[in-house]
Structures are given as C-alpha cells and as structure tokens.
Amino acid sequence: MPSTDVPSPAAAALDLLDRDRVLAALDPPARKLLTELDLHQQVDSTNAEAMRRVRAGACSGLVCSAEQQLAGRGRRGRAWVSPFASNIYLSLVWEFTGGVAALEGLSLAVGVVVAEALGDCGVPGLQLKWPNDILHAGAKLGGILLEIGGDREGGCTVVIGIGLNVKMPDSAAANIDQNWTDIGSIVSPAPDRNQLLAALLNKLLPLLPAFADHGFAPWKNLWSARDAYAGKAVVVHSGEQQLAGTATGISDSGALLLDAGGTLHTIVGGEVSLRPVA
Fold first, then answer.
1. Which of 127, 134, 135, 132 is nearest to 147 (CA)?
2. Does the N-terminal or the C-terminal CB of the chain have fewer CB atoms within 10 Å?
3. In order along the chain (278 residues), what is the average pLDDT of each group of 10 residues?
4. What are phi and psi of 44, to 5 degrees?
5. How far apart, in whole angstroms, are the C-alpha atoms of residue 15 and residue 210?
6. Phi first, then psi: what are they for 62, rounded to 5°?
7. Active site positions, annotated
8. Quick check: 196 and 166 in contact, CB under 8 A?
9. Which of 187, 19, 33 is nearest to 119 (CA)?
10. Shortest CA distance to 112 belongs to which of 217, 264, 244?
C-alpha cells in the first residue's frame, strides 16, 4: 500500500519520502497532470510495479516511487543498485497515440528535463550520454529506462523509469561495476529526496503532453548542448557486433550519428550501448 505516514524524527534523519511534502512542492501544471503518487517502502522495481498498475487500469499521470528496489533494472538487463532511502527510484506512466514511432527521441527528451530539474536543485555541470544516461565529469549519475505496453502501432502506454544516485552508501557502491557518482559527491549538502522528486515531476509531467504534440524537435538542441561524446571516438555495441567511429551528434529523431571511416551511420536505440574509446 502507498505510504502516507508522517515520518518520525528517526525516519526524517533517513530522508524518507513524504507524500505531503512532495505534493506541496509541485507547481500547478505538474499537480494538474499528476493522477496518483504511489510511494512504497519496498518493491521489486518501480517500473514493474507501474506496469502492474497499468494492467489493473492505471492511466496517464501515475507516479510510482520507492525507498528501495529489490530487483531494480537498467537497460540491457543490467541490475540497478537500489539501497534503502538513499537514491531516487521513479516510474511515470503516460499514454501516447501513434504507436512506437511517436516515441522517437523520448528517452533523450526525458534526459534533458532530468538534467534541468537537477540544475534547478543546485546540481551543476550535467551531461547526457546517448541514449539514456545522465553523467557528471564522465561518471554515471543516473539512467532512464522506457518500457512500452499496448498497441505498438496505435495507442500505447509508456512507463518511464528513472534512477538517480543521491547518497550512495559505500556498502552498496561495491556492487556497481562502472564509473559512477552521486549527487552528494557533487554538492554538499545534497538536496533532500523530496525536493528532488518534486523537481523531477515539475519537469517530467509537463514534458509528456508537449512531447505528444510536438515530438522530439523542441528538445534536440537542448540535448545536443549537453552531449558528453560529441566529436569523440566511441564504440557502439549491439549484441555481438561492434562499430567504432566518431560521434557526430544526433538526428532529428534522436538517433545517434556515427562517422565510421567516412561513412555516416544512423543508429537507433534499443539494446545498444555506447562507450568511449579507451
């Protein structure tokens, strides 16, 4: 069940999420678009919980967050380290018409507004890695995972999952197998998680109807301004295949443009990852 209890002083010291505090910090446009704020102590993953709610009839504007994920997931089947009361684990449900084609560039637009929201909370210098990572000084601060249900050619429902490292405990960090950082390492003291969650929703909720109307175009230049790998040598991995070249930006639909030996390749998302050349 959603948690609505007022936290005790000990709970407050843990920086627990508080529904009333989040709602009080929402701007009117975001509050109007929010249909339900579903807070949990513990779930397998917020995306999985949001998908279950969709199957039970939940609609656009459902937000699911939790203190801890027992089976948090990133892209390409990777585990997402999700210790208790330490980070942001957030999933947002939205319905789109026009099928999967209407969603081109959505993960990139989400990355833009996540970076903007964190900037509003005093977190500077954030960059974006195609197609779904938030970086600071080359280290991963957060990630985005989109999952789609319904009719892939017509009306479909998207669950937008966001994980952000806020104050990662050393004991949990030992399980992370890549270069990472957290907000507490960038700014001190770190903003509290209720402030962060509200700031994210203030940007994310208005983004979605605007994206449905206009597509990725309004966010392309904003994403490009934060592109961490523009002009750099990279390797794109897709299954067992690899393609090396120079990242030259993104297309109008958000695909990666890769110059490999003078041939320009257009690479769409999916089970694809990008890594810098060592």
1. 132
2. C
3. 41 79 98 97 95 94 95 66 87 92 94 98 97 95 91 85 92 78 95 97 98 96 98 90 94 96 90 81
4. -65, -55
5. 32
6. -75, 130
7. 75, 140, 275
8. yes
9. 187
10. 217
Angle subtended by helix axes 217-224 and 106-120, to nearest 10: 60
pTM: 0.91
Q: Rounded to 5 degrees, what are φ and ψ at 4?
A: -125, 5
- Locate 43 and state its tokens: 């779930």
What residues pair up with 92 in beta bridges, in sequence order?
63, 160
Residues forming beta bridges with residue 5, ordered by sequence position? none
Segments of the chain assigned E as strands:
36-43, 62-69, 88-96, 126-129, 133-136, 139-150, 156-164, 233-238, 241-250, 256-260, 263-267, 273-276
